[in-house]
Write a structure and sequence with these properties.
The chain is built from ten helices and two strands, in the order H-E-H-H-E-H-H-H-H-H-H-H. It is mainly α and 232 residues long.
């Protein structure tokens, strides 16, 4: 079992157990709207306004975003089932840094540490290092000494970004498909089967038939009036 399969197994096990940054950006409203989550049903106006506020700002510089992309691909390499870019993991990490300002210093400090270390060791920034050189650096902070009572800041940084990468990918459409998780899916119910009714000497009143679920409307969202009465 390779590393990616091991991660997949761990996530599936956890799901079975319980299913479980800031400078202005000159983007127009249309551009920002395109960034708003694809599935907005259930969001309150306040929540949507908060999302728009965060999506209209940028915390990481472009060079930092590129570094995050490289890190994410090293942590979870692409395969035929999906990749970091498809799952929009860098965008997710950018959003989380703005949504939780408490992680900003650790994130930015960790990215700076990578360049400082590789410049001293290889004479170039992390992004310009070869894949093998990058792995050599990451191995030092990905597998810390378990006997240490307090891990170094660079170790804490890697733990944080690894968690963000895994969360961002495996909560995306691509990641959910890779997990093979289906969730609850509606089926078609046309009442008690005829043979079961017959066994019990019963049958439906014909006047009931139009009252059964109209399957042509099964994907329609419910609508209520101002008094809370279901109208569709």
């Amino acid at each position: 079992m390779n590393r990616r399969d091991s991660i997949r197994s761990l996530l599936l096990g956890s799901m079975a157990g319980g299913l479980a940054l800031e400078s202005c950006v000159t983007e127009n409203e249309t551009s920002i709207e395109k960034k708003i989550w694809e599935y907005q049903y259930g969001r309150t106006p306040e929540e949507k306004a908060y999302d728009e506020k965060l999506l209209g700002q940028q915390f990481f510089e472009n060079s930092e975003i590129e570094k995050i992309k490289r890190l994410a691909n090293q942590i979870l390499p692409p395969n035929e089932k999906g990749n970091i870019e498809e799952a929009k993991v860098p965008e997710f990490i950018e959003f989380m840094a703005k949504d939780f300002p408490s992680i900003q210093t650790r994130m930015r400090g960790g990215l700076m540490w990578l360049d400082n270390y590789t410049n001293k060791t290889y004479g170039k920034d992390f992004i310009n290092c070869s894949g093998d050189e990058q792995y050599q650096v990451l191995d030092q902070i990905a597998f810390p000494d378990p006997k240490e009572t307090e891990q170094k800041q660079e170790v804490q940084f890697f733990s944080l970004i690894r968690n963000l990468v895994m969360t961002g990918y495996f909560t995306s459409e691509a990641g959910i498909k890779e997990l093979g998780y289906k969730g609850n899916q509606p089926n078609v119910w046309d009442g008690v089967p005829v043979d079961v009714l017959k066994d019990h000497g019963m049958s439906y009143d014909k006047s009931w038939m139009p009252k059964f679920v109209d399957q042509s409307k099964r994907n329609d969202l419910a609508q209520w009036d101002e008094e809370g009465n279901l109208i569709s």
